[in-house]
Amino acid sequence: MSLSNNTESPVYQLELTEESFNSFLPDYLKYASRLHFTPIETAKIAGSWLTEAGARRILDIGAGVGKFCISAARYSNSHFYGVEQRASIAKLGNQLAKQFQLQNVSILHDNILNVNFSDYDAFYLFNPFYENLEFAKRLNDEVPLKEKLYRTYFNYTDEQLSKAKAGTRLVTYHGNNFEVPSSYKKERDAFDGNLKLWIKQD
Fold first, then answer.
1. In this structure, which long-range contacts are made by residues 182-190, counting pairs with CB atoms below 8 Å and at least 24 apart in sequence?
2. Spatial CA neighbour of 112 closest among 97, 101, 124
3. Strands (E), the chain
4. Whole-structure pTM over 0.85, yes or no?
5. In the CATH hierarchy, which fold is given to the domain comprising 12-200?
6. What gap in Å lies between CA 87 and CA 74, rounded to an integer?
7. How crowded is residue 103: how many other Cβ atoms within 10 Å of its Cβ?
8. Beta bridge partners of 186
9. Distance of CA 48 to CAs 78, 117, 118, Å?
10. In this predicted model, what pLDDT tens digit does every residue of 123-137 receive, in sequence order?
């Protein structure tokens, strides 16, 4: 299947599987998918954790092609937003959301430094800035990658998450606990501890 050949007419009742999702990706993103994009079953659980307390606007920081947003939104009435700084990949993410007939997914083409976290109720992090440390694992050459940008993005995200109100939910996948502000407490985990739910304390 090719997304570019059928962007105007979504495939109705298309099953969401790893295979069906990857079939719409260009070859280089199929190769990168396992490393960069959240598995569907993982996203379903993460999405349920983020929304079970009533969150309606969830932000995926560094969304890529929107696989987390699409996988979670498929089983939720909440709206999943992703921020992605690569224009071509953000565009593809929105095309994929239409392909899977999802009205509750929006992939925003923007830099995280322009995003006000107060517009959202809950957050998802899957090593969004790590490419700035491991250039060889980058998705493409569309944006500059620098080690100092990792710290800039990290600090901004930490600051914004720290301002969230008590009870705000954050889910992290892989990564290390240091990217989570100290005001958040881990409440549960899954997938051998790789998926974690954190809740902002008073």
1. 188/49, 190/42, 190/45
2. 124
3. 57-61, 79-84, 105-109, 122-125, 169-173, 184-190, 195-200
4. yes
5. Rossmann fold (3.40.50)
6. 24
7. 9
8. 198
9. 10, 20, 21
10. 999 999 988 888 777
